[in-house]
Design brief:
By secondary structure, the chain is α/β, with parallel strands linked by helices. The protein folds into 2 domains: 163 residues, Rossmann fold (3-Layer(aba) Sandwich); 83 residues, Orthogonal Bundle (Conserved Hypothetical Protein Ylqf, Chain: A, domain 2). It contains 11 helices and 7 strands. A 7-stranded mixed β-sheet has the order 3-2-1-4-7-6-5, with helices on both faces. Bound molecules: guanosine-5',3'-tetraphosphate.
Length: 289
C-alpha cells in the first residue's frame, strides 16, 4: 500500500463483485468496459480479464475531452494491435457516442449471424457495462438511454440488483450491481487515481502526491507548465524542484523566505484536476512513463 493513498476496502467486496459479474455472464453477449482515457491502466481492475473469459468486449476511453488527443490515438492503436475495439468518448457531452452502435455491431457480428441462422429475428444484443467508481458508467448509460432511462424488466434468473436499459437499435445495457474496485494495493495505481481525483478523502500526503504528479507532467508536458506558470522548466528537473519553482513563481512563501510547498501542492493538485493545465494524459501505452 502506498504512503500516499490509503483506501479502506475489503477483499470480500471484490469476491462479491466477481460473483455478481460471473452470474450475469450467461445472459449477456458482450461487455462495455469504461476506463479513464487519462489513466487507462490504473482506472481498471485487471482481474476483470480473468472473470470475463472470452466475452467480446469494447473499451470506452471516457473523459477523452480532458485527455491528450495524441495519447488517446496511441491508446486506440495499442488496443487495435491486440484486436480490442476501443472508442474515445466524452460521456459528459455525448461526443463520440454516435459511433457506439456501429462498434457494437462490429464486435458482435458473429453473434448477430447466429441469431439470424437460428431464426431469432429481433433478439436484442445485451451488453454489460463495467468500470471502477467515478469512471463515468452512469453518465454513459444516461446518455445512451436518454432522459427517461428506458428501463427494461430484469431477465429471469438474473442476479437481483442488475438494471437493464434499452438504448434502441436492438441493444440493451446492463448496469452491474457490484462495485468494481480499482487495484488499490498497487501504489502507482493508487497515486494515479488520486491525481485525477477518482479516489477522494484518502490522501495522507498531499505534498508527495503533487511531487509525483509533477514528475510525470514535467517529463511529458513541460510546455503546459511553462505556459501556465510563465516560467522555464529546466530539462530533467524532478517533481520536487518543480514544485519549488511553481511555489516561488506564485509567491507562496513562509517566514524566512522559504517556499510554502504545502500550499503549492494543494494548488498544483487543484489546478490539474480543474483542467487548468489543459488536456493531459498520465499513462501511455507499452510501459512508457
Ligand atoms: P460512475 O457512474 O462510474 O460512478 O461515474 P459518473 O457517471 O457518476 O461520473 C463521475 C464523474 O465524472 C461525474 O462528475 C461526471 O460528470 C464525470 N464524467 C463522466 N464522464 C465524463 C467525461 O466524458 N468527461 C468529463 N470531463 N467528465 C465526465 P462529478 O463531478 O462527480 O459530477 P458532475 O459535477 O458532473 O455532476
Amino acid at each position: 500500500m502506498s504512503d500516499t493513498v490509503r483506501v479502506q476496502w475489503f477483499p470480500g467486496h471484490m469476491a462479491k463483485t466477481r460473483r455478481l459479474i460471473q452470474e450475469s455472464l450467461p445472459l449477456i453477449d458482450g461487455v462495455v468496459e469504461i476506463v479513464d482515457a487519462r489513466i487507462p491502466v490504473s482506472s481498471r481492475n485487471p482481474e476483470l480479464d480473468h472473470w470475463l473469459g472470452e466475452k467480446p468486449r469494447i473499451i470506452l476511453l471516457n473523459k477523452a475531452d480532458i485527455a491528450d488527443e495524441s495519447a488517446t490515438r496511441r491508446w486506440i492503436a495499442f488496443y487495435a494491435k491486440q484486436n480490442i475495439l476501443a472508442l474515445p468518448v466524452d460521456c459528459k457531452t455525448g461526443k463520440g457516442l454516435n459511433g457506439f452502435t456501429d462498434k457494437v455491431n462490429q464486435l458482435l457480428g458473429e453473434t448477430l449471424e447466429k441469431f439470424k441462422a437460428k431464426g431469432m429475428v429481433g433478439r436484442t444484443l445485451r451488453l454489460m457495462v463495467v468500470g471502477i467508481p467515478n469512471v463515468g458508467k452512469s453518465s454513459f448509460i444516461n446518455r445512451m438511454a436518454g432522459g427517461n432511462k428506458a428501463k427494461v424488466a430484469d431477465k429471469p434468473g438474473v442476479t437481483r440488483g442488475n438494471q437493464w436499459f434499452s438504448i434502441g437499435k436492438g441493444i440493451e445495457l446492463m448496469d452491474t450491481a457490484g462495485v468494481l474496485w480499482p487495484k488499490f494495493d498497487d501504489a502507482t495505481v493508487g497515486e494515479r487515481l488520486a491525481f485525477t481525483g477518482a479516489v477522494k478523502d484518502v490522501v495522507t500526503d498531499t505534498e508527495l502526491l503533487a511531487v509525483r504528479l509533477l514528475d510525470i507532467v514535467g517529463l511529458n508536458y513541460a510546455d503546459r507548465l511553462e505556459e501556465r506558470y510563465k516560467m522555464t522548466v529546466p530539462k530533467g528537473i524532478d517533481g520536487y524542484d518543480l514544485l519549488q519553482l511553481i511555489g516561488k513563481k506564485r509567491g507562496m512563501l513562509i517566514s524566512g523566505g522559504e517556499i510554502d510547498t504545502e500550499r503549492a501542492s494543494v494548488m498544483v493538485l487543484d489546478e490539474y484536476r480543474g483542467g487548468k493545465w489543459g488536456r493531459i494524459t498520465l499513462e501511455f501505452p507499452e510501459g512508457e512513463a
